[in-house]
Amino acid sequence: MTFDPLGLMLSGRRLRHLCHLRAFLSRKARSTCSFSRFSQAHGYAIAQRLEQVSKAVVQINQGSLYPALHRLEQKGWLTAEWKPSETGREAKFYCLTPSGRKQLKAEKESWARLTGAVQLVFDEGN
Q1: 69 and 94 in contact (C-beta within 8 Å)?
Q2: d(CA 42, CA 8)
C-alpha cells in the first residue's frame, strides 16, 4: 500500500493509474479529436502543457507518461498517429476518442467526489 499526497491509503498500482489518468484527462475535451488546448498532441507536448497549466505542480516524466498513453490507447480512449512534429522529427500524436471523452467525464465526476470528501474530512477538524 502507498500513501497518496492527501494521506489516503491506496494500492501503488491503483494510485499510479488514477494519477496518470486524471492528470492526462484533466482538461475538457472540445471536439472529436481534442483535449486540453491541443487538437492533437505528442507526448512531450502533453507533459509540457500539464506542467505549464499546473504551474509546475504536475511534472510527469517520460518513463511514466508513455506507458500511460499506451494503456489509454489500448483501452480505446486515445487514438494515435505517427507524423512529423514541429521540429520535423516523427512523433506519435494522440487524440481523445468519443469513449475517451466519456471516460474523462466519469473521471472528473469521480475526482470531484473524492476531493469533496477529502474537504469534508479536513473541515471536520475546524
Answers
A1: yes
A2: 32
- Structural domain including 71 reads 30-117
CATH number, residue 99: 1.10.10.10
Number of domains in the chain: 1
- Let me know if residue 10 belongs to a domain: no
The CA distance from 47 to 16, in Å, is 16
pLDDT over 70 at 34, yes or no: no
Mean pLDDT of all residues belonging to the chain: 78
Task: Say which residue the cell 466519456 belongs to.
Answer: 102
Instruction: Output DSSP code: residue 35.
Output: B
- Count the Cβ atoms, other than its own, within 10 Å of residue 100: 23
Question: All 3 cell numbers of residue 50?
Answer: 500539464
Please report, for the chain, how many H helices and E strands are present, in that order: 4, 5
Alpha-carbon span 50 to 48, nearest angstrom: 6
